[in-house]
Design brief:
88 residues; mainly beta; 3-stranded mixed beta sheet; two-stranded antiparallel sheet; 5 strands; elongated; binds zinc ion
Length: 88
């Protein structure tokens, strides 16, 4: 298994962080996974590698606005990745 950027996925052989890739383009660490060697122990590899990344259909919280814009429902157009205001 390889990542979208072509790097091999090291899950299983080295301790790794999995990632979530949001629609806004941000990538955030999600679950940390111990490798086979250290699984079930208190140990981990000295170097932690990047594991797989999972695509989310959401924007990350950093790129969202609390309560929209004063409660107005703006939608994200998936084609252009821009905010579209409420139709009149
Ligand atoms: Zn490990
Ligand atoms: Zn973001």
């Amino acid at each position: 298994m390889t990542l979208s950027n072509g790097e091999p996925n090291f899950v299983g052989t080295m301790c790794s962080w999995n990632y979530v890739r949001y629609t806004c383009g941000c990538e955030k660490q999600s679950e940390f996974i111990q490798c086979e060697k250290w699984n079930g122990t208190i140990g981990k590899c000295k170097k932690l590698v990047k594991g797989g990344s999972k695509a989310s259909s959401n924007y990350c919280p950093t790129h969202l606005i609390a309560d929209g814009l004063g409660g107005t429902i703006w939608k994200i157009d998936p084609e252009t990745n821009t905010a579209v205001g409420p139709s009149e």
